[in-house]
Specification:
Elements: E1 7-17, E2 26-34, E3 38-42, H1 49-55, E4 65-72, E5 75-76, H2 82-92, E6 93-96, H3 100-103, H4 110-120, H5 126-139, H6 145-149, H7 158-169, E7 176-180, H8 188-205, E8 208-213, H9 216-222, E9 225-230, E10 233-239, H10 240-245, H11 250-258, E11 308-310, E12 313-315, H12 320-323
Parallel strand pairs: 3-8, 3-9, 6-7, 7-8
Antiparallel strand pairs: 1-2, 1-4, 4-5, 9-10, 10-12, 11-12
The chain binds adenosine-5'-diphosphate and magnesium ion.
Length: about 325
């Protein structure tokens, strides 16, 4: 087996239900990330992206009933014993969050943040850990890394701090990075730098990345494949170029039509009408039907559409086959 066909992360029918809610938070998630691959998970706020990411570390909402599997490097996190959980969390996968300042203790030096796990968990000497910290800060493009070891978080910009967090995520050499809105708190040029670093880590270290974002344009710019999530389900997945050229789910087209491009003029943006379905609502049919301009009464509102292969994509839409070619992002480039 080559590195490229090694599956690092595999969701297999993952379902997460809180008994007090009208619908599951996650419903039958199927998703995979291989080594050397950047896979994006996109969807509006509240669709279940963060719950999906945290499941890969065995973190589920308190009181939730969990069905299906989520495997990291072969270890199933659903019902995992404490030793397996610890192994995945310390050695196999690392999470990068939106706000680097929330991830770092503000009163400790940057160097301590990087070296403490190496010294306390992995038993390294101070000299060894310092050397590794300098190397990692260099790997994420921080100039003069040795100087930054003695600085406090407030002395660094948000973009520099996010690099420190990424460096920290690499300390144990995990093969899987879970990035939950890693650039949402950053300005546009810093965002581009962080994305370039993630791309380089994938290329040079063969990491697999799950990139979570509400921004489908950003996802398209850096990832190989995209999964689109709506109300706790995957509604479409395809290689980026295919998904961009011909979205097959009306929701995907809606996201494309309502997102300003990363570069160039925005043109006319068309917001998706209505609001996403909350956890206190449920529907017997397609959850997107109430907002969908293609919805057919008596059909789309009867049963949830399963995810079915269609060309290079998989799509969960009752009308997908007959709508091929007629779904376009409703954006006119000016
Ligand atoms: N610990 C929790 N307890 C109860 N509800 C939760 C919990 N975590 C997330 N949720 C709910 O699950 C849904 C999906 O949340 P989340 O995964 O954070 O969405 P996203 O990251 O796509 O914005 C939301 O409705 C959210 O309120
Ligand atoms: Mg989130």
């Amino acid at each position: 087996m080559t590195a490229l066909d090694t599956t690092l992360l595999a969701y297999d029918g993952l379902t997460v239900t809180l008994p007090s809610m009208a619908r599951p938070i996650l419903d039958g998630i199927e998703l995979s990330v291989r080594a050397g691959e950047i896979v994006a998970l996109v969807g509006e706020s509240g669709s279940g992206k963060s719950v999906t990411a945290r499941a890969a570390l065995g973190l589920f909402p308190p009181g939730a009933e969990v069905g299906g599997r989520v495997r990291v490097d072969g270890t199933d996190l659903v019902g995992a014993d404490p030793a397996s959980l610890r192994d995945v969390r310390t050695n196999k996968a690392a999470m990068i969050y939106q706000d680097p300042r929330a991830a770092i203790n503000p009163v400790r030096r940057v160097g301590d943040f990087l070296t403490e796990p190496l010294r306390l968990v992995h038993g390294w000497s101070k000299a060894q850990a310092d050397a590794r910290a300098v190397e990692l800060l260099g790997a994420v493009g921080l100039p003069d890394p040795a100087r930054h070891l003695n600085q406090y978080p407030h002395e660094l910009s948000g973009g520099m701090l996010q690099r420190v967090v990424i460096a920290a995520a690499l300390t144990a050499e995990p093969r899987l990075l879970l990035c939950d809105e890693p650039t949402t708190a950053l300005d546009v040029s810093t965002q581009a730098e962080i994305l370039a670093i993630l791309g380089r880590l994938r290329r040079e270290r063969g990491l697999g990345l799950l990139l979570i974002t509400h921004d489908i344009e950003l996802a398209a710019a850096v990832s190989d494949r995209i999964y689109v999530m709506y109300a706790g389900r995957i509604v479409e997945t395809a290689p980026v170029a295919d998904l961009f050229a011909s979205p097959r789910h009306p929701y995907t087209a809606g996201l494309l039509g309502s997102s300003p491009p990363l570069d160039g003029p925005a043109g006319r943006l068309t917001p998706i009408p209505g609001a996403p379905m909350g956890l206190l609502e449920s529907a017997p049919g397609c959850a997107f039907a109430p907002r969908c301009r293609f919805a057919e009464p008596g059909r789309c509102d009867q049963s949830p559409p399963p995810l079915r292969r269609q060309g290079p994509a998989e799509v969960a839409c009752h009308r997908a086959a007959e709508l091929v070619g007629s779904i376009q992002p409703s954006r006119e480039d000016s």
